[in-house]
Write a structure and sequence with these properties.
Order of helices and strands: HHEHEHEHEHHEHEHEEEEEEHHHH
Distance between the termini: 21 Å
CATH architecture: Alpha-Beta Barrel
Largest sheet: 12 strands, mixed
Number of strands: 12
Radius of gyration: 20 Å
Number of helices: 13
Structural class: alpha/beta
Number of domains: 1
Strand content: 5-15%
CATH class: Alpha Beta
Bound molecules: S-adenosylmethionine, iron/sulfur cluster
Helix content: 25-40%
């Protein structure tokens, strides 16, 4: 549990004694926040999950990271000063094979997971990813429905791959895009990649029917907030839902400060001043975005307030890194080694039993505790696993 790859900016000494992830802390939290805890209880109608954590949250979604490498060096995720050519990424042998990933996915589905999102690093760098997608697409949920299968990508390889991904059984893609201005985008992706190629990828995904296509934009104050309105304008009437994400203090985000967070409220105001918005009902409790419709019917736009309005109480997501480690929170420092179990020939049933036991102890709610954790004297940067290992 200790061989988590910590970002170079972190201070491992601070990992001890933190409240997030502590189950002992969670019982106290439920007592201290009865109203919030009450509204956050999931009832049976919400879920078919047979796996509930210490705060009453069912296991419903899985983020499966297939590779920790990436062809971008986004300033807020894999700054090039840290992720140099000498950086030690997982070797091919350290990554789970497609057989192992499929076995794991089967165990999660057995526990009630209904949605799997493939991520990375850059998932489209994993050779023959379509073969894994074909296998996952064949899974059915406990309710007997096809599994929801989605992928998050930087879009750089999407123009070439969109049709093949759809043919393999992928249903939807989310593309990350932080600006329309070529200079801003080239700076933020850290490798001078042109925005036109990502836009081509988004068009190819729409044409291939990987719908609804979503576009995620991380907004960092002083860097790309002036891209909010141009992006909104570009994706109106396109059928693509654009979502603005607050810049988070996850591993890799060496430059994070509270001041750099451009809040969802500010992003919404910026859009609203030009294009009036109407709030839309939240569709699923585990939805991370607050979605608005353009008042003139031009489509939808979403805002993900991970920092200003944390949604830990509704967080039903497990993350498995490319090396088979299970993380219960994006900000976790500990992991549970599923790879060892898969390698030892553990059956899907036995795996499911192990995962269930780990999930039952989950009390993570880092974002809700961010302020008090960071405010501790001497606290520099909260240590987290790097985002490119566990996926977003
Ligand atoms: N490479 C793929 C991509 O960029 O879409 C998938 C992996 S990436 C780690 C997943 C998501 O995490 C992306 O949408 C990215 O913008 C987001 N992300 C990475 N670092 C972040 C940070 N510090 N704050 C907020 N979002 C972040
Ligand atoms: Fe790569 Fe995605 Fe991280 Fe950017 S956000 S560096 S594309 S993993
Ligand atoms: Fe979930 Fe994020 Fe809260 Fe962790 S910090 S429990 S990943 S919402």
């Amino acid at each position: 549990m200790s061989d988590v790859c910590l970002p170079e900016v972190s201070d491992p000494a601070e990992a001890g004694g933190r409240a997030a992830g502590s189950v002992a802390g969670s019982a106290a939290w439920l007592r201290a926040h009865p109203a919030r805890a009450g509204t956050r209880r999931f009832d049976r109608a919400d879920t078919d999950s047979v796996c509930v954590d210490a705060l009453g949250r069912p296991l419903q979604d899985l983020r499966l990271s297939v590779i920790d490498q990436c062809n971008f060096r986004c300033t807020y995720c894999m700054p090039k000063e840290v992720f140099t050519k000498d950086y030690r990424f997982l070797s091919a042998a350290e990554r789970l094979s497609f057989d192992e990933l499929a076995t794991l996915a089967g165990a999660f589905v057995e526990l009630g997971v209904e949605k799997i999102r493939l991520t990375g690093g850059e998932p489209l760098l994993r050779k023959d990813l379509e073969r894994l997608i074909e296998r996952l697409a064949g899974l059915t949920t406990r309710r007997g429905r096809p599994l929801e299968l989605a992928l998050t990508t930087n879009g750089s390889l999407l123009a070439a791959k969109a049709r093949g991904l759809k043919a393999a059984g992928l249903q939807r893609v989310t593309v990350s895009l932080d600006g329309l201005d070529d200079d801003v985008f080239r700076h933020m992706n850290g490798v001078d990649f042109p925005v036109s190629r990502v836009l081509e990828g988004i068009e190819a995904a729409c044409a291939a029917g990987l719908a609804p296509v979503k576009v995620n934009t991380v907004v960092e104050r002083g860097v790309n907030e002036h891209q909010i309105v141009p992006l909104a304008r570009h994706f109106r009437h396109s059928g693509v839902t654009l979502r603005f994400i607050e810049f988070m203090d996850v591993g890799g985000a060496a430059s994070w400060t509270q001041h750099n967070v451009f809040t969802s409220a500010d992003a919404r105001r910026a859009v609203e001043q030009v294009f009036p918005l109407v709030a839309r009902e939240q569709q699923q409790r585990s939805d991370t975005a607050q979605v608005y419709r353009y008042a003139d019917g031009a489509g939808e736009v979403g805002f993900i307030s991970s920092v200003s309005h944390p949604f830990c109480g509704d967080c039903t997501r497990a993350r498995v890194a490319a090396d088979g480690k299970l993380y219960l929170c994006l900000f976790a420092t500990d992991s549970f080694d599923l790879r060892r179990l898969v390698k030892s020939g553990c059956s899907a049933d036995d795996l499911a039993g192990e995962i269930r036991a780990v999930w039952a102890r989950r009390g993570d709610r880092y974002s809700e505790l961010r302020e008090e954790t960071r405010a501790r004297p001497g606290n520099k940067v909260y240590p987290t696993v790097r985002m490119s290992l566990v996926g977003g």
